[in-house]
Amino acid sequence: MTTHAGGLPGRSTPVLVNPHAHLALGTDMLAPAGPGEEEIFLAAGCYWGVEEIMWALPGVVTTSVGFMGGATPNPTYFEVTTGLTGHTETVRVVYRAGGNTLAHILKTFWECHDPTTLNRQGNDVGPQYRSAIFPTTPGQADLALSSREAYQAVLTEAGLGEIVTEIVDAADTTGYFPAEVEHQQYLIKVPNGYRCHARSGLACPMPGAGLTAG
To answer: Where is the active site (predicted)?
Structure first.
């Protein structure tokens, strides 16, 4: 279940005001997907490191970090850390559609975290760290579901657990709420900052050979 009964009221105005241009890509972090582009929302634990991984992928136009899958409107980072808003830390990825771009993004998503741990990535514990994909098109949803099935087969063969990743249409959530400006491209602002990725170490069988995230 993705949309939880939040215990905090939130606010009517965004917490991200006057966003700067993307510090790695130079693009508008919040611009709608343009012609030939699509957006997808990915939650794989602490969003600082996930965003850093995603912005480096070929075909990615822009990224930002925020919150999704909860009930509290425009939550702050602190509010989400309480676990009372129902949100999970989420990366918005806008990419050029076509070719293997989405397949590469999803392959990287599965490989950059452990999708078998519920509400947890490594030492990070709480519903804000749960694994989720929020597709915005039927094609994205189909590929997300088929990639989850394919990766589950790999994990099962290796004796690992069941994938707990939620796959829920973005339109069926309360929306994406960008986080405060200090969290955007955090690892450029704080190069030695925290990165937490608990990986299975197994490759997802999608286009592109081998592991995409070391």
So the answer is: 46
